[in-house]
Amino acid sequence: MFEVKATSKYIRTSAQKAGLVLDLIRGKKASDAIAILRFTKKSVARDVEKTLRSAIANAVNVADKNQKRRLDEDDLVVSAAYADQGPSQKRVRPAPMGRAYQVIRRTTHITVSVAEGNGKPSRSERRAASASSTASAAREKRTAGSKKKAAAKAETQESK
């Protein structure tokens, strides 16, 4: 299993806004992530999709050259996606009474990593699995006391 990444630098948005979109695709299959990004109504989604497509192309290229095998985007999973803060441009905007307000134009560096795999289970699948295991453990704990009492009662009745 290998991991390949792609980075887009100096994207003209804040890292916080890009992080909101990256949270949507982290852990998803690459094909599902592209579909999600296509229908996301944030302007940074276009830049994230571009970076994701670049990471997929890098993975296909690495698999073809180094490992001599074909790789499809359905085999890839978004293993990591994060936005780092880039340099900020400081500009001046005229304000009332001869003053000036500072405008900070933020930039971000978007990094998307893809790896070969079948993807993490969704949040609902993880909750269902943990709920069933914790529920059965709690049930065992509750019934253990009553089972001991029933066994002790049966012993006392047999001895009489």
Structure report:
By secondary structure, this protein is an alpha+beta fold. It has 2 domains: 3-119, Ribosomal protein L22/L17 (Ribosomal Protein L22, Chain A, Alpha-Beta Complex); 121-160. The protein is 50% helix and 25% strand. The chain is built from 4 helices and 5 strands; from the N terminus they run βαααββββα. A 3-stranded antiparallel β-sheet has the order 1-5-2. Strands 3-4 form a two-stranded antiparallel ribbon. Strand 3 (89-94) and strand 4 form a beta hairpin. The longest helix has 37 residues, at 123-159. The radius of gyration is 27 Å and the shape is elongated. The N and C termini lie far apart (67 Å).
CATH architecture of the largest domain: Alpha-Beta Complex
Structural class: alpha+beta
Order of strands, main sheet, comes to 1-5-2
Which value, in Å, is the CA radius of gyration? 27 Å
How much β-strand is present in the residues?
Answer: 25-35%
